[in-house]
Design a protein that fits this description.
157 residues; alpha+beta; Lipocalin; 10-stranded antiparallel β-sheet; 3 helices
């Protein structure tokens, strides 16, 4: 039952974004996947961004109780306009005189080279006021989650 409800929420979120964006608009390949801030996660307050097809999700909470929420659900009735370049992805939500802009930048510098991971920073602007600035602060960089395949084999007696 719980899986069915989560699947329906995910489908509804994807459909609402698809209807606003249009069927041909996709998340750029460089940002596709899940990105985490390991420092915040180590402090017990996990934060991750997930980019999947036409949807953006934010995950918050402790590693064992993390909740995943579609970003567009925070802005019902808003028009969503995506924009992407080689290393930039921006989503603007507009409704009446309200504008909310999320901007994600791929970082290719000493941080990504020293960690061996792809890194992005983000900013948040609400009605022309910067709420979160692009920064290379340890709390504001996100590394792409790497999945390591694990092969399970039966234990022998």
């Amino acid at each position: 039952m719980k899986k069915t409800i989560l699947m329906l929420i995910s489908i509804a979120c994807s459909m609402s974004v698809s209807l606003v964006i249009g069927q041909n608009q996709k998340i750029p390949s460089w940002i596709s996947g899940t990105w985490e801030n390991s420092l915040i996660s180590d402090l017990g307050n996990s934060v991750a961004w997930s980019f999947d097809h036409d949807s953006i999700f934010i995950e918050k909470g402790s590693p064992t109780t993390r909740k995943k929420k579609c970003l567009s659900l925070d802005y019902p009735g808003y028009k969503q306009t995506p924009f992407s370049e080689d290393s930039l992805y921006r989503v603007t939500f507009t409704k009446d005189n309200n504008t909310v802009v999320y901007e994600f930048k791929l970082v290719n510098d000493h941080i990504s080279k020293s960690t061996g991971n792809t890194v992005f920073t983000y900013s948040l602007t609400i009605n022309g006021i910067k709420k979160v600035e692009h920064s290379k602060s340890a709390y504001l960089i996100f590394l792409k989650r790497k999945y390591i395949p694990i092969m399970l084999t039966p234990m022998k007696d």
